[in-house]
Input
Amino acid sequence: MCPGMLRLAEPRFLGAPRQKDFNFFLRTQVGDLSQDAHVLKMVELCFSRNTVPGLEGHFWRFLKNPVVDDPQFREKVVERIKMSDRSIGAIARIVLEELTAFSGCTQACVKFPIDIRHLAPLLRWFPNCRIVHITRDPRALAMSKYNDPSGTALRIKQHPQLAWFIRRAVLLLVISQYRLSAQVHQKFRGRPNYRLFRYEDLLAEPERVLRELCEFTGIQFQEEMLEPQKGEHEHQPSSLTGKQQKAFDITAAVRWRTVISPLDNLVTLALTKGSMRRLGYDPKTHPIFRHARESQPSLPQVVY
Output
């Protein structure tokens, strides 16, 4: 919602193990970038809007960014890549910078890999960037993954006899990623261009958190930011309700409690307790749970 900000989806320049990321695309579709012809081929494929292995994410569809069809934009990208060391880091920096400039924007906000282990190379690629690390209650993450319609839910539908094992694997994956994120936070927390933000804090105190976010990223805070439902951007549907919740909704932070099993709750708490502490999150005292109770409509009293 900030003027001059170009919002971009996950480009997958860096991926998880066995994921078809940009490295996979270069290896299977382009070839040796020391050859100028291959650089030209790479740029044409990147901005073709076609489904290309390794370029399958939303970022490469450019649904609302017509500048990629501008011949001058493509020529500029090719020219700069040829003059660079032609590494993935240089390509990522050039593509994002030129997309921002040709779109008439001054800054870009990019959703980079969910796998937070890539934070170190990202900081090398973009030394002047601001890293906004967003986290939330691991039990909420687990329930979101459980009900992901394009992920876990699809696999369970394909293999219903393995549903229990699939859910256990997902739970363990979420727990391991959460613990990893806490380790990475401990490593980078002292850097001036890194900041941790908790989803529960945002919903409990949106104005305070948004002001901190704006100060950290060098963006001017505006009152309109407190009403995201008025912004011109897409919102991902909730995996639990299937609805697109645009406004700040306190109950969204605790909705996972209606679907989590006692066993999953116990296991997740036991294996992430230390990580929660390192990430500054205490589910026993966080105000989001009190606010959620207060925001619930009171039920009529029935006398028997």
